[in-house]
Amino acid sequence: MSLGLRTKAEASIHVPITDYGGGIRTAILTAPDQTLIGLIENPYFPGPVPT
């Protein structure tokens, strides 16, 4: 998970990347309007179901 996108989205890091092991990582960003945005990277989650 790269937080390089934060500069383009003008968000800032609220909680840096936390690695829980097994490929599971989280981070929390603060948007310009102060909304918190949670990110989760989980390699075990299958992702979107094709339609």
TrEMBL record:
Name of the protein: Uncharacterized protein
